[in-house]
Design goal:
- By secondary structure, this protein is α+β, with helices and mostly antiparallel strands.
- The protein has a domain of 115 residues: 3-Layer(aba) Sandwich (Aminopeptidase), CATH 3.40.630.
- It contains five helices and seven strands.
- It has a seven-stranded mixed beta sheet with strand order 1-2-3-4-5-7-6, sandwiched between helices.
- Helix 1 packs antiparallel against helix 2.
- The structure holds coenzyme A (COA).
- Coenzyme A binds next to strand 4, helix 4 and helix 5.
Length: 179
């Protein structure tokens, strides 16, 4: 991922003024559905973006462009039809069989319930359908929960990117072959 997430306390603080309360009591077993994002998701996408990342945030206009773009997919996880739980953004390059996961985020209240895993599985499926052979991503060295998730789902560490983030932090690059 390109952007460093906010520390957890800031994430929680910011999330209180989003529409997050509706998922606060969602049962851990609630079925997660992943679909392509629509224009009507823009408010939720921008609110989660602002609550989760502290730099290189995607603006509403950028999200709107990506919704219509051939070189990007914006996916949304939801429960009970309308409850917005998280999102993943993946980029493709013409002529390249490597897809890049740019962003993965679930709402703080929805974490640890399989939302991130469901989004990632759908990203992989979508990339495969576009003929991609590999999915790559970057993650901050201290983002233990994301690293655990990626490694559990079969991602392998490819290398370290020095000063990858705006604040000077390094990133691990991970990749997974999509067979
Ligand atoms: C990283 C992130 C996307 C993970 O999302 P998530 O929705 O919590 O992911 P999951 O629930 O699928 O997996 C997280 C954990 O919950 C567990 N889990 C999965 N399904 C579960 C379920 N149904 N019930 C309970 N726990 C479950 C997983 O085993 C996993 O445990 P682990 O941490 O030991 O690997 C989320 O923490 C996030 O948005 N972080 C802030 C942004 C960020 O850092 N993004 C990535 C880098 S930019």
């Amino acid at each position: 991922m390109l952007r460093p997430p906010l520390p957890p306390e800031s994430t929680a603080l910011k999330a209180t003024h989003t529409a997050a309360s509706s998922v606060a009591h969602a049962p851990a077993t609630a079925a997660v559905r992943v679909r392509r994002a629509e224009l009507s998701d823009l408010d939720d996408l921008v609110a989660l973006e602002d609550a989760t990342f502290d730099s290189d945030r995607m603006s509403r206009a950028q999200y709107r462009r990506h919704l219509d773009s051939d070189s990007a997919s914006v996916l949304v996880a939801s429960a009970n039809h309308r409850r917005f739980l998280g999102t993943a953004v993946v980029f493709y390059r013409k002529g390249s069989r490597v897809a890049r996961l740019y962003s993965l985020a679930s709402r703080p209240e929805a974490r640890g319930k399989g939302v991130g895993s469901a989004l990632l599985a759908t990203v992989e499926q979508a990339a495969r359908q576009r003929g991609c052979r590999e999915l790559r991503l970057e993650v901050r060295l201290d983002n233990a929960s994301a690293i655990r998730l990626y490694e559990r789902l079969g991602y392998r560490r490819l290398g370290r990117l020095e000063r990858f983030y705006e604040d000077g932090a390094d990133a691990w690059r991970y990749g997974k072959r999509l067979d």
